[in-house]
Write a structure and sequence with these properties.
This protein has 428 residues and is α+β, with helices and mostly antiparallel strands. The chain is 34% helix and 21% strand. Strands 1, 2, 3, 4, 5, 6, 14, 15 and 16 form a nine-stranded mixed sheet that branches. It is globular and about 80 Å long. Bound molecules: glyoxylic acid and manganese (II) ion (2 copies). Residues 85, 92, 127, 399 line the site of one manganese (II) ion.
């Protein structure tokens, strides 16, 4: 018989190709695309099969609920995200959802009910791959959704509001949609996804580590102590287009060479400090993009993170000052838009202890580690206490199709999660 850990991994593998991917020969599943809808449909089916009642909320999150001993009790939420980066690995996000489903499948098969309900929540957007505003759907659940975000557009100018309005929900939810218009989305009502603090007792997320620490220490799982603060900017550099053959080098206002200098400054300034600050330019687009035209318009992203928000902000300030100086020296105009800012998010110490106890019961050594990657847990922390369990991934590789996880480690994670759930029940 296939172990539950292996089934969780195999389901992620199933979701790694068409129709669950919009990319030929790899995985790309951005929020509100056809691949995303197909994935929601599959996940909703697995939730129902595990014994949950399934709904889709006003922010397009698929939520499966497993009642506790008394119907309507507050819930432990177990979640992660279904969207992916471009040319992604298969486990960043979906594995946490599949593990939540496996926990419920085990409880349901044993007829076990807890003094609280458990809801598995598959968030819609965490990566910000399509719209430059990540973690929108967890923000809606945590009650922190800013309605102005509905106007944010993707790379072809489609706004979040337009995408939500046009989104075809999975077949499973169609009937509900007919009888109750916009149950899953209402242009004025995305905040109806918000949970009242009294309806939620805690949030648990399992995720591949996306780094090499657990592997280096020979450990299958570890308890996350906290998540690094994030800051993202969208930078636009405007120079002047000109003929590549006739404009002398001294007379140019080349937006791309100016941006190149800025990108190198980002790397130099982030490397310069003694802290854990990391900064990345992950996207850059130059226009008009012709071999014989001096580029006049460049847009690029900057992502800056650190566990220490003061260190993060100091590097961010230095980067922005340097970008301004480069722009002035090269006579190009620069606009800076801060598109994302999340504080560092410590995990709840009592919940961390429950995870450590559950790990010990499975023979797993105590290990706590911080997360440099962002997770929906950092948004959910404004709603309820949060806990995260990291699972070793091969070579620490993530955001890469080579992402890989051992099903045996996933099985250990599932057992630890079940131990956590039982211990949480005992503490009631
Ligand atoms: C999400 O994967 C992030 O940390 O950017
Ligand atoms: Mn990711
Ligand atoms: Mn993730």
């Amino acid at each position: 018989m296939v172990s539950s850990g292996l089934r969780a991994v195999e389901r992620c593998d199933t979701l790694g190709v068409a129709p669950y991917s919009d990319m030929e020969g790899g995985l790309f599943r951005a929020w509100l695309t056809p691949a995303f809808a197909a994935t929601q449909e599959a996940v909703a089916g697995w939730m129902a099969e595990a014994g949950m009642t399934v709904r889709i909320d006003a922010a397009t999150n698929v939520i499966g609920r497993y009642e506790g001993t008394a119907p309507g009790a507050p819930a432990l939420l177990i979640g992660s995200h279904l969207d992916s980066v471009r040319d992604a690995g298969r486990y960043d996000g979906p594995l946490g959802v599949m593990l939540g489903i496996e926990c419920i499948a085990a409880l349901s098969a044993a007829g076990r009910r807890l003094p609280f309900a458990i809801e598995v929540i598959a968030f819609g957007d965490e990566e910000g791959s399509r719209f430059p505003s990540p973690m929108l759907t967890s923000q809606a659940v945590a009650g922190g959704f800013d309605p102005r975000t509905l106007n944010v557009t993707d790379s072809v100018g489609i706004s979040i509001l337009e995408s939500l309005t046009a989104y075809t929900p999975p077949i499973r939810f169609e009937r509900r949609r007919e009888t109750c218009v916009s149950t899953w989305f209402d242009t004025n009502g995305i905040d109806r996804a918000a949970r009242s603090p009294g309806s939620v007792i805690a949030y648990l997320e399992a995720h591949i580590e996306q780094g090499p620490a657990l592997e280096a220490d020979g450990l299958a799982v570890g308890v996350v102590s906290g998540i690094a603060a994030q800051l993202r900017y969208s930078i636009v550099v405007e120079g002047m287009a000109g003929h590549a053959g006739t404009t002398s080098m001294t007379l140019r206002r080349d937006a791309l060479t100016a941006a190149a200098e800025m990108v190198l400054a980002v790397e130099r300034l982030a490397r310069g400090g003694t802290s854990d600050v990391v900064a990345t330019v992950g996207r850059l687009e130059a226009k008009p993009g012709a071999v014989n035209v001096i580029p006049c318009h460049v847009a690029f992203s900057i992502d800056i993170r650190a566990l220490d928000p003061i260190a993060r902000d100091a590097v961010a300030d230095a980067i922005l000052a340097e970008i301004e100086a480069i722009g002035a020296r090269r006579q190009v105009s620069v606009s800076v838009d801060r598109v994302h800012d999340l504080p560092a998010s410590p995990c709840d110490s009592a919940l961390m202890d429950l995870l450590s106890d559950a790990m010990a019961a499975e023979g797993q050594p105590e290990r706590r580690l911080a997360s440099g990657a962002g997770h929906d847990a950092m948004v959910m922390a404004s709603l309820c206490p949060t806990a995260m369990l990291f699972i070793r991934c091969a070579g620490g590789i993530s955001h890469n199709p080579a992402e890989s996880v051992d099903p045996a480690d996933v099985e250990i994670a599932r057992r630890v999660m079940l131990g956590f759930i039982e211990r949480l029940g005992d503490s009631f």
